[in-house]
Amino acid sequence: MYLKTIIQGRLEFGNIKSYEKVTKMFLQRIETYYKTDVLFKFEDIFKEEELALEIPRYVNQVTEKAFKVTTGILAYCTQFAVSGSIRAWLIKEGEVVGFETLEPDSDKAAVQSFVKGRKLVKEKGRESEALSALSMAIEKYDRHAQAYERRAKVNFIMKNYHDALRDYDKCILLDSSIPTAYYGKAKIYIQRGDFKEAIPNLEESIKKSIALQTLYWKSRKLKADCHIELKEWAKAAFDLKLFTARKFDKTDPNLFWMRKALYQYGLVLIELNEFSEAVIAFDKALNTQGKDDGMDEAEILTLRGIAKQKAGKTGYIKDIKDAAQKGGKRAKSLLKNL
Questions:
Q1: Is position 10 within any domain?
Q2: 261 close to 243: Cβ distance less than 8 angstroms
Q3: CATH number reported for the structural domain that contains residue 80 in this entry
Q4: HSE on the CB side for 92, CA within 13 Å?
Q5: pLDDT tens digits for 177-208?
Q6: How far apart are alpha carbons 307 and 150 in whole angstroms?
Q7: What confidence score (pLDDT) does residue 94 get?
Q8: 33 lies in which domain range?
Q9: N or C: which terminus of the chain has fewer CB atoms within 10 Å of its end residue's CB?
Q10: Is residue 295 part of a domain?
Q11: CA-CA-CA-CA torsion for 338, 305, 286, 293, nearest 10 degrees?
Q12: How many CB atoms lie within 10 A of CB 112?
């Protein structure tokens, strides 16, 4: 049986000695054990001039055996690397049935400092320790793109926006395939109120990630927010249509924003004079459970009433009355003119 696979990523080996070891090992194992089972040819993924292994994005139908053999040999390659990451998905009928994150985990100083710093980033109140560990990783290997990206995140948390932007730019310069760097840059521009500059970074985040990743949809939603701020209604509608049509897993944090996204989609459709479609979006928003998402049910009812009236549908008076009973100020004002 053939299944869809997506594999992408990059490993850096740091010096010629490590590069020669890993290439020798790879060629020996291909010849001795795997023959035709590995999905990549040596010359297609190894970059001698960069002392790196790079898979920009590989998408194909493969056997489960080929997937396991390939990820196995790539995992073996990571022990020689000083930085980088490879991600591999195996997909059956739209469902992920296999996933591997392959990263260096050796005793090299740069690797250990990065692993320590990455863990500390997740621990609230330990930002200074994380910053020190990640800076140590960079000191040991100054081309460590992932360390720059994680240090940028810590700087953002600490509101050191200038330093965060510098680190994100350095990460992208070293490895332009890391989507979180573009997402982080976009958040800095949004924090500054520069929505126009945020959008191309979010577009890169979308392009460099895949629809199976949480980041892909976070970027879509944030891009829609920027278009709304700029009153670019059609562009916002495009992103929100995709986001609201997505069926997120219960564990996906994007699910938290679904009700708000449906509300925004309805709002944008009103601006585009697509009133019947707006009613549908508001219907879905009202039928979507939300908790602590900042949404006001009275406001959604009010806008659904407005959309129904403009679409020539019945029931708009009831929506506005219901909204007024829930304390909606705009609804109370509208009732005076009905």
A1: yes
A2: yes
A3: 3.30.70
A4: 8
A5: 999 999 999 999 999 999 999 999 999 999 99
A6: 45
A7: 86
A8: 2-102
A9: N
A10: no
A11: -80
A12: 17
Q: What's the chain's Rg over C-alpha atoms?
A: 24
Q: Which two tokens stand for residue 195?
A: 């929505």
Q: Please tell me the distance from the alpha carbon of residue 320 to that of residue 299, in angstroms, as a whole number.
A: 9
Long-range contacts of 121-124 (CB under 8 A, 24+ apart): 121/150, 121/153, 121/154
In a domain, 45, yes or no: yes
pTM above 0.90, yes or no: yes
Question: What is residue 31's predicted lDDT score, i.e. its pLDDT?
Answer: 86
| Cβ neighbourhood burial of 332 (10 Å; 0-12, 13-18, 19+) | middle
How far is it, in rounded angstroms, from Cα 241 to Cα 262? 9
Q: Are the C-beta atoms of residues 95 and 31 closer than 8 Å to each other?
A: no
Nearest partner of 50 among 189, 177, 156, judged by Cα: 177
CA distance 138 to 115: 12
- Cα separation, 128 vs 134, in Å, equals 10
| Domain assignment present for 330 | no
Number of domain units in the chain: 1
Give me the residues of the chain with pLDDT under 50, please: none
